[in-house]
Design brief:
With about 500 residues, the chain is an alpha/beta fold. Helices cover about 35% and strands about 15% of the residues.
């Protein structure tokens, strides 16, 4: 590295966020990159650490640390430090087909494995990644990569989220003819309708889709496999099919009052809000509004935070977020050593916005839902909660117990459930050979991406279970290469 004492000489400087009280008034991107000079200084903090844990994704203690797409992080950090931005872009593009997405929506497990964090704060890897790709688009370095020749093989990919797009990109570069089917009216899957636009503006997604079309990839929206076209038809018309349908079945709560009106799954809420925004800037009214309502968001993950950010922009009356976990420590606990992902107390952008508006953090930690309370019209009017204690049994499994006497009633005319997902909607495929495993993910052959249906592959959340955008991209890449090998063997 060019500056071997960079992390000693320079302190971490993160993204600049727009003022919370201003940004809740619109749906524009909330984060702005610092100046080029600051970015180069931040890149200089990347040390010559010999074993860069940041660039090799793995799962430790059930959490991701390091980069699952195997970005060559120290190499492009050094190039940015030296001002060689185009070379940095070329190096980044070797591993990551969509750094403009990961640089905005990834939780940066690479930074959790950064060696510099042993001495001080980690390098701002995610910010630098976004800066590289943003500059590459500004300078015109990002151009369609059109294959020199075609193999004559055709592939149908079902689903246009991160895994589907990644798989399509790799297979197209191998010379195959790729068609991507999407049941929604816009391409992008989670990137379009799952992540609110203040995180990834739609023009960022559309820009990449346009490039992929110029490279020869065909996109077919408004087409649901199993409804408009069958998997059997796609299999007969193509040499391979890849299922990138995500893990879209939401986890539900089974407590009294669950059937009351005013209780919604998080993704239904987020999807309708974004679609109305993109279709008409909310003029059509085809969305679920939190305006003037006491809102409770149940869940502590990224999707719950997205609901928090959306509800505060809809001018909710109040907002509380139930998080079943206790408050995290401010620094790593003894049982959470580096290079595990750090389980520490954080204030995400959504919580920061609510705090700015209502003058308190919205989260109620170590809290679970006991009952939904009904009004005279059959709608939800409140939530009864209780405090919970989390312990581990002899098998290491979590055991949660309600603490007696801690029940509390909260007013709520809207409740949003953001407590995870339970697998893919495989029944819509109407194919008895596409089965699920014990974790409700699409079953595959051992250590493979091919399902038990000949020539049908799967990748992303559909295979792995609900996970990070970087895992979806890597799964798409690996499934593409396995699919490519399968088709080329059949040619020989």
């Amino acid at each position: 590295m060019g500056n071997i004492t960079g992390f000693i000489d320079q302190q971490r400087s993160s993204l600049r966020y727009r003022d919370p009280l201003e940004r809740v008034k619109d749906w524009k991107e909330i984060a702005k990159l610092p100046s080029e000079g600051i970015l180069r200084t931040q890149a200089s903090r990347c040390m010559d650490c010999a074993v860069p844990f940041c660039q090799s994704g793995s799962e430790l203690a059930g959490m991701t640390t390091g980069c699952p797409v195997y970005n060559l992080i120290p190499e492009w950090n050094d190039l940015v430090y030296r001002g060689r931005w185009q070379e940095a872009y070329e190096r980044l593009s070797r591993t990551n087909p969509f750094p403009e997405f990961t640089g905005r929506a990834c939780p940066a497990p690479c930074e959790g494995g950064c060696v510099a964090s042993l001495a001080t704060d980690s390098v701002t890897i995610k910010n630098i990644e976004r800066a590289i790709i943003d500059k590459a688009f500004e300078e015109g370095w990002v151009q369609p990569q059109i294959p020199m020749q075609r193999t004559g093989k055709t592939v149908a990919i079902i689903g246009s989220g991160p895994a589907g797009l990644s798989c399509a990109s790799i297979l197209n570069q191998q010379g195959h003819s790729v068609t991507v089917y999407e049941r929604a009216d816009r391409i992008g899957g989670l990137l379009t309708y799952g992540i609110p636009k203040m995180k990834i503006e739609q023009q960022i997604v559309d820009r990449r889709i346009k490039l992929m079309e110029e490279e020869g990839i065909r996109f077919v929206p408004n087409t649901e496999v199993g409804r408009h076209i069958s998997l059997e038809q796609l299999r007969a018309a193509n040499d391979s099919v890849v299922l990138c349908i995500g893990s879209t079945r939401p986890r539900d709560l089974t407590v009294p009052g669950r059937g009351l009106d005013g209780i919604y799954f998080a993704m239904d809420y987020l999807h309708l809000n974004t679609k109305s925004l993109l279709d008409s800037n909310f003029a059509d009214g085809n969305f679920i509004s939190a305006e003037g309502k006491d809102v409770i968001v149940i869940g502590g993950g990224d999707t719950a935070t997205d609901c928090v950010s959306t509800a505060i922009r809809q001018n909710c009356k109040s907002l509380v977020q139930f998080d079943i976990y206790p408050t995290r420590p401010n620094s790593r606990a003894d049982d959470n050593p580096w290079p595990q992902y750090p389980i520490i107390h954080k204030v995400d952008t959504g919580q920061e916005e609510v705090t700015s508006v209502f003058r308190h953090d919205p989260r109620a930690f170590a809290t679970t839902t006991v009952e939904f309370i009904r009004d005279e019209n059959g709608r939800v009017s409140g939530v009864k909660s209780a405090r919970v204690k989390t312990t581990f049994n002899e098998k290491g499994q979590k055991v949660r117990e309600i603490i007696p006497g801690t029940e509390k009633d909260w007013p709520a005319q809207m409740v949003l459930l953001a407590i995870g997902f339970e697998g893919s909607e495989t029944e819509k495929l109407n194919d008895r050979k596409i089965t699920v495993n014990q974790r409700s993910n699409i079953a595959v052959k051992e250590n493979a991406y091919q399902t038990h249906e000949e020539g049908v592959f799967t990748a992303g959340d559909a295979r792995k279970g609900a996970s990070l955008i970087v895992w979806a991209i890597q799964e798409g890449k690996e499934a593409a290469m396995e699919c490519h090998d399968y088709m080329m063997r059949k040619m020989s």
